[in-house]
């Protein structure tokens, strides 16, 4: 069968739709946020593929595997095995690295064991085994070391309390031992100590000393402050003591292995009498083939291993993340980098007739890397695989073989198949929300209104941070500045420097804004206070009665809507509360209504529905319209904060700032995961912030946002060691005219 067919899809907000997806092709699924894209592809197609596969296993195997309930649809045909490559970040084992995940490090261990100048096994080069791991850090590559700057005040003497730790405060037992040792002039400032005196004060081994001049002879043990602190860290102390001590420690490279993670004998082994394992794990991945080219490749082992390593590196570099290194902790890579590492593994796979599902693979990518990604997806398709991407990027949409446009709106206004077909067919369909993506006139859509000669600039000079060495930039006040450049070029480092050196800087990142289900959209935006007040006024009750965190909460679940059972090693299990049916409130609270709706009904409304429902209540509507303006109209008022995506959380934070003036706002990719229609809303919000006399800095790859900037700082020219420079800073037109700017080239291509 040449197609995957789904009939009668009704899961969540899907409106009983029928969908056809061609096999062995690249299909893009698009639509505004909340339209039903993920429901169709993940909750139905992927879920059903997993469910049918697991059902084919034995009952014993199914007991220890996750269960997948059947989704709400009529029939599905042509389904193949599915692999989902999402942007979920790696977590857990601190010993897991980019090298171990990609298995490149495994190949290098074999290479060093076969071709190294010492006879060691591959296991001796593993930092996950006692034989190979550095004994000091246990293979972590990092160690907690005492920060002498935090521990000592060198402007004071020991008598003046130069030691900042309370255990060595003046008059304490350990301070008395230092005094009794008579090793130091107690009135001498530590800044005047000789190197020998400082080393003895901090690092002396335990010394047994006999007290002098006392009627009764006393013996005591003197030990360096750092030595004793490290012992304290390793013993079984209470949490309060450990927390206090932690302020004097810093996490840095292991002083023994210098971050390589390996034992001394493994660190000394060389390939071709030139390169150690340190050279391979600390260089950028893109540099590994150059190291191998300098080695003798004539041996059978080299002929076997070199091509495997080079092929894997090329697949990673082709996705725009060649700036990573093998020693990078896997838990520290971003969601976008994680997705590309997962995709890179599939690029070297020989599997065929698989359906690959990718969720917004272009998120966080410069336009240059979007082209590389497109080539990689084509390679997977060429092996007779099916690739489905949930995507909004215009280039990927135009390169797709087939497009599904889900919409037209979000939530209850979405869930319909608006259009399907080739990009050419979608481009002719005026009903499709993507029509303007293919046929939007671009000649007059760049920002030409900013006058740099009349603008007031704040200058940041001689910047040194990460890969930025000595760069200088200027930011126009009360304007939108966009930081552009390929991944690893220094955009985030520059924004952090600007933030640290600007008193009124507010960072609007995509970090989670809630860790529990107690907080929701209504409570965070404070509109819930107004709604509870309205219900109290209308019913004559106290406002606290309409709070699920207070008087009105269900006594069984305490207002959570679910009962959580601790299953010990199997984790926690949540079940809907039988007493309130998941509504969170006491039964008597739900009897009070306003215009036929109780308070629980209101929490189930989307922002758009609530605006319509509370149309006569100006204060409530005004508050809700702010959420609508920033593109959150499809989200229900009761949606828990800990279930929001990074982009949704960022926009919700922004809603609290739209009335403030005189700040510097720094946004990290505010249009990530947004449909072009929603991107226009974000641009309007940024303009509103400027109108309120704020300065806005945006880290962004979206050409629509870049084209509307007042000022652009283009970082590069590449990532990692080859980045950190200001390629050009200026207006949109000036960036377009700069031949060295990659961003300028793509602006020219799209807005000629």
Explain this structure to me?
With 752 residues, the protein is of the alpha/beta class. The strands form seven sheets. The chain has a six-stranded mixed sheet with strand order 5-10-11-3-12-13, with helices on both faces. A six-stranded mixed sheet has the order 17-20-21-16-22-23, sandwiched between helices. The protein is built from 29 helices and 23 strands. Strand 14 and strand 15 form a beta hairpin. Helix content is 34%, strand content 16%. The protein has five domains: 192 residues, Rossmann fold (3-Layer(aba) Sandwich); 91 residues, no CATH class; 110 residues, Helicase, Ruva Protein, domain 3 (Orthogonal Bundle), CATH 1.10.8; 168 residues, Rossmann fold; 123 residues, ABC transporter ATPase  like domain (ABC transporter ATPase like fold, Up-down Bundle), CATH 1.20.1580.10.
Secondary structure: elements and pairs:
Blueprint: E1 3-9, E2 17-22, E3 26-30, H1 37-55, H2 59-63, E4 75-77, E5 82-85, H3 98-102, H4 104-115, E6 142-146, H5 148-151, H6 173-181, H7 195-203, E7 207-210, E8 219-222, H8 225-234, H9 239-246, E9 249-253, H10 264-268, H11 277-282, H12 288-293, H13 300-317, H14 335-347, E10 355-359, H15 367-382, E11 386-390, H16 394-399, E12 402-407, E13 416-421, H17 423-427, H18 435-439, E14 457-465, E15 468-476, E16 480-484, H19 491-500, E17 505-508, H20 521-524, H21 527-539, E18 562-566, E19 572-576, H22 599-604, H23 607-613, H24 618-629, H25 646-655, E20 664-668, H26 676-691, E21 695-699, H27 703-707, E22 711-716, E23 725-730, H28 732-736, H29 742-750
Parallel strand pairs: 3-11, 3-12, 5-10, 10-11, 16-21, 16-22, 17-20, 20-21
Antiparallel strand pairs: 1-2, 1-4, 6-9, 7-8, 12-13, 14-15, 18-19, 22-23
């Amino acid at each position: 069968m040449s197609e995957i067919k789904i009939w009668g899809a009704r899961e969540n907000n899907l409106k009983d739709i029928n969908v056809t997806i061609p096999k062995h092709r690249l299909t893009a699924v698009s639509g505004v946020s909340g339209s039903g894209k993920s429901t169709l592809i993940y909750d139905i197609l992927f879920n059903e593929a997993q469910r049918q596969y697991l059902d084919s296993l034995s009952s014993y195997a199914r007991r220890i595997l996750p269960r997948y309930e059947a989704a709400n649809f009529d029939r599905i045909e042509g389904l193949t095995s599915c692999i989902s490559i999402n942007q979920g970040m790696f977590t857990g084992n601190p010993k897991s690295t980019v090298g171990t995940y990609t298995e490149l490090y495994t190949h290098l261990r074999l290479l060093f064991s076969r071709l190294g100048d010492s006879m060691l096994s591959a296991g001796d080069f593993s930092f996950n085994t006692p034989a190979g791991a550095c004994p000091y850090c246990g293979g972590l590559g990092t160690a907690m070391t005492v920060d002498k700057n935090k521990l000592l005040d060198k402007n004071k003497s020991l008598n003046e309390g130069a030691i900042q730790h309370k255990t060595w405060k003046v008059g304490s037992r350990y301070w008395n031992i230092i005094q009794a040792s008579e090793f130091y002039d107690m009135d001498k400032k530590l800044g005047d100590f000789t190197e020998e005196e400082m080393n003895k004060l901090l690092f002396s081994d335990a010394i047994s000393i006999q007290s002098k001049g006392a009627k009764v002879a006393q013996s005591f043990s003197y030990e360096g402050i750092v030595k004793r602190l490290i012992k304290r860290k390793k013993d079984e102390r209470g949490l309060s003591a450990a927390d206090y001590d932690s302020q004097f420690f810093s996490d840095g490279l292991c002083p023994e292995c210098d971050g390589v993670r390996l034992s001394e004998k493994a660190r000394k082994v060389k390939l071709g009498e030139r390169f150690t394992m340190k050279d391979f794990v600390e260089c950028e991945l893109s540099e590994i083939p150059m190291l191998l080219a300098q080695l003798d490749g004539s041996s059978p082992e080299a002929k076997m291993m070199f091509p495997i390593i080079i092929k894997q590196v090329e697949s990673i570099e082709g996705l725009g993340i060649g700036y990573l290194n093998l020693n990078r902790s896997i838990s520290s890579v971003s969601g976008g980098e994680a997705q590309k590492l997962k995709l890179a593994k599939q690029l070297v796979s020989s599997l065929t007739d698989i359906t690959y599902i990718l969720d917004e693979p272009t998120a966080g990518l410069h336009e240059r890397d979007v082209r590389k990604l497109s080539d990689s997806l084509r390679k997977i398709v060429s092996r007779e695989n099916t690739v489905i991407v949930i995507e909004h990027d215009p280039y990927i949409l135009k390169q797709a073989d087939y497009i599904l446009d889900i919409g037209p709106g979000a939530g209850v206004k979405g869930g319909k198949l608006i259009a399907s077909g080739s990009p050419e067919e979608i481009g002719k369909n005026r009903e499709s929300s993507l029509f303007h993506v293919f046929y939007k006139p671009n000649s007059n859509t760049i920002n030409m209104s900013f006058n740099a000669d009349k603008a007031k600039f704040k200058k940041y000079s001689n910047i040194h941070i990460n890969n930025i060495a000595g760069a200088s930039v200027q930011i126009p006040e009360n304007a939108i500045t966009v930081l552009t450049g390929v991944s690893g070029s220094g955009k985030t480092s520059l924004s952090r420097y600007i933030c640290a050196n600007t008193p009124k800087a507010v960072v609007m990142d995509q970090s989670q804004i809630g860790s529990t289900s107690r907080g929701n959209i209504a409570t965070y935006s404070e509109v819930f206070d107004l709604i509870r007040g309205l219900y109290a006024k209308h019913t004559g009750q106290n406002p606290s009665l309409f709070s699920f965190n207070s008087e009105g909460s269900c006594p069984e679940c305490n207002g959570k809507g679910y009962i959580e059972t601790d299953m010990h090693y199997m984790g926690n299990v949540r079940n809907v509360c039988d007493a309130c049916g998941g509504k969170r409130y006491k039964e008597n609270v739900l009897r009070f209504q306003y215009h036929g709706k109780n308070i629980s009904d209101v929490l189930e409304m989307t922002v758009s529905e609530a605006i319509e429902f509370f149309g006569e209540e100006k204060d409530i509507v005004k508050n809700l319209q702010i959420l609508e303006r920033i593109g959150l109209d499809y989200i229900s008022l009761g949606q828990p904060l800990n279930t929001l995506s990074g982009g949704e959380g960022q926009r919700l934070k922004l809603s609290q700032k739209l009335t403030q003036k005189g700040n510097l706002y720094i946004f990290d990719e505010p249009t990530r995961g947004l449909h072009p229609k929603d991107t226009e809303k974000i641009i309007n919000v940024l303009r509103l912030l400027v109108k309120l006399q704020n300065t806005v800095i945006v880290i962004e790859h979206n050409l629509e946002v870049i084209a509307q900037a007042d000022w652009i700082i283009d970082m590069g020219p590449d990532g990692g060691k080859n980045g950190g420079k200001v390629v050009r800073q200026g207006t949109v037109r000036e960036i377009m005219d700069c031949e060295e700017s990659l961003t300028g080239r793509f602006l020219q291509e799209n807005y000629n």
